[in-house]
Amino acid sequence: MHKHFHVAALIFSLLSLLLVGVNAAYLSSNRAKVQQISNNSQQLQAVQVFTRVYQSLANDLGKAAKEKKDSEIRGLLMSNGLQLREDAAPSEPTKKR
What we know:
Radius of gyration: 31 Å
Strand content: 5-15%
Largest sheet: 2 strands, antiparallel
């Protein structure tokens, strides 16, 4: 009976070591995923900032194109998916859908 106890203790010790290894692997994987999520969040914030800048720039270009009747600026806006609405205020180019 004493021998069976040692075998069982050895088996449970090996299982415990295996579980520690699996836990360490999951911990490492989770840290990598948290870092990836953090990086994606920072990129999203940067995109939001640049979206406001680009929208302002497009509005200013649209206004200049209408006021100066500049076909080159209008063509630039159109080549990037923006078009001027004739009934809109001069600073409101619209995104093509």
